[in-house]
Target: Amino acid ABC transporter permease
Amino acid sequence: MTTFLNECAALLAEYGPSYLRGAGTTLLLALVGTLAGCLIGFAVGTVQTIPIDPQRDPLHKRIPLRLLRGLLRCYVELFRGTPMMIQAVFIYYGLMYVFNLHLEMWTAGFLIVSINTGAYMAETVRGGIVSIDPGQTEGAMAIGMTHWQTMLHVVLPQALRNIVPQIGNNFIINIKDTSVLSVISITDLFFVHKSVVGAEYTYFESAALVMLIYLTMTLIASYLLRLWEKKLDGPRNYDLNTTDTLAYTSGLYNAPDPDHKSQNLDMKEGASHV
Model:
């Protein structure tokens, strides 16, 4: 055990900066890929939920929309049904070989993580939109809002709250799965681990250090994402937002409090006696 700890300490002393740079690369790829993937997912998921009414919509609208949905469905199934490592090889080396398209290594890395995440987020967003009560859409349409206005101002804000946990899951998954990008020589944390092992032959010691770094990054990310979820939940208690003095003199509500320390009386212990 002492020898193992000494080997780990020696690796940290010599390769500590390299491990940190690799961890920074991993976080950058995961963060940018998750953000871009969310944008792709929101776009694809929104298009997939556009209603098609054969009686109301003209044929020239229905046919292109159905074709677009079919293409987007193929994209989602393709990138959800194949490993990211194969996608990386196909995009980075395949495009170069078949189409003579030379992608810069970092461009390829960001693209791979983004479109892979976008495929998963598309289904998450679609499910989040479908989960919203149809009455919300019907009410928005009743006051004259278009479909896109309804999605932007009514449906998507509510769907976002429902899918925040999945966004966090995708970010944590990306922190780990970016390790496969070492196949195209991106110097992430796993690539540094392979380099250290090749130089020192300290397989177990280096793997233990890398595992600890990955665990630290994912735990911190989980904690920050939970804080974000609580922030979206808002306060537990609310003051009545009204200027009607009768509502306060009736005894059901406290008067407005500039410090927001008052709350609805039916949430207090004494509410049961009202």
Notes: The CA atoms of residues 164 and 228 lie 9 Å apart. Residues 2-48 form the longest helix (47 residues). The radius of gyration is 26 Å. Residues 262-274 have pLDDT under 50 and may be disordered.
